[in-house]
Amino acid sequence: MPAPQPQLPAALWRRSAFRLILNVSVAGPSVRRLAPIAISAGLLAGCMAPAPFERVGRSAPPGAPPGTCWESVIIPARIESITEQVMISEAETSADGTITKPAVFATETRQEITRPREESYFQTLCPDELTPDYISSLQRALAARGLYDGLITATLNTQTRAAIRRYQQELGIDSQTLSLRAARSLGLSAVELGD
Predict the structure, then answer these.
(1) Would you call 43 exposed, middle or buried from its count of C-beta atoms within 10 A (0-12, 13-18, 19+)?
(2) pLDDT band, very low/low/confident/very high, at 27 (cuts 50, 70, 90)
(3) Least C-beta-crowded within 10 Å: which of 35, 95, 176, 187?
């Protein structure tokens, strides 16, 4: 598998395409054949609009405001095995009511989805907001609530993420990514007041 290529900004693509145009005149025939493709790709990259949610985490719910960051939590489907006794044939009885042949049963087991898979979204802080000072304040806020007992490192280490998950579970969010709701309830982010 080839190594992933770095993403180049559109301006850099345009400059690279321009340099390629200048160098094609002195290049061999194989480069001359590929040059139009490379130049077209570079020019098209400059015309493409940026992604509507370029700062978004993994995905965003429909209608999410541009410039906001989101995370999703997957609630897996619940599948249960159901075992039943199914009658294959009824019992046979004689005229006086005695059973001459007992009923025959078979055991059947099937899988049934009792709760479908769900995906729920929650708004998060964007990466540029998670500064070392902010993370230090987060660690202190979690420590004050007895959820974090590590050092104040200003990094989102394993202990900090575990403490975030414990705090957010009370809010109904089972994730180690800090939600905007949790940040606000910890007093770390501004609360927007309604009209």
Answers:
(1) middle
(2) low
(3) 95
